């Protein structure tokens, strides 16, 4: 999987050991990429996806 995406509409915050993703994604693939990148920083169970779809 290529881990590049347009991130201008995604906000990333760290809260303790958790990563919070907010904003908008263009498609399901971008959502998967964003959560995969965040999981490299925090374990997958510590990634909280609050992104909204534009598709």
Average per-residue pLDDT, rounded, comes to: 89
- How is the biggest beta sheet arranged? 3 strands, mixed
Treating each run of at least 4 consecutive H or I residues as one helix, how many helices?
1
Question: How many domains, as an integer?
Answer: 1
Q: State the strand order across the main sheet.
A: 1-2-3
Helicity range = 25-40%
Strand content: 35-45%
Structural class: alpha+beta
Order of helices and strands: EEHE
- Any idea what the shape is? globular
Tell how many strands the DSSP assignment holds: 3
Unreliable spans: none
Rg from Cα: 10 Å
Distance between the termini: 21 Å
Give a quick summary of the entry.
The protein is α+β, with helices and mostly antiparallel strands and 55 residues long. Helix content is 25%, strand content 38%. A three-stranded mixed β-sheet has the order 1-2-3, with helices on one face.
Please tell me about this protein's structure:
It is a single chain. This protein has 1 helix and 3 strands, in the order ββαβ. With 55 residues, the chain is α+β, with helices and mostly antiparallel strands. The chain has a 3-stranded mixed sheet, with helices on one face. β2 (18-25), α1 (28-41) and β3 form a beta-alpha-beta unit. The longest helix has 14 residues, at 28-41. The radius of gyration is 10 Å and the shape is globular. The relative contact order is 0.30.
């Amino acid at each position: 999987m290529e881990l590049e995406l347009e991130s201008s509409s995604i906000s990333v915050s760290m809260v303790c050991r958790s990563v919070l993703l907010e904003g908008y994604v263009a498609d399901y693939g971008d959502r998967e990429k964003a959560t995969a990148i965040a999981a490299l920083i925090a374990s997958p169970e510590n990634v909280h996806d609050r992104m909204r779809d534009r598709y």
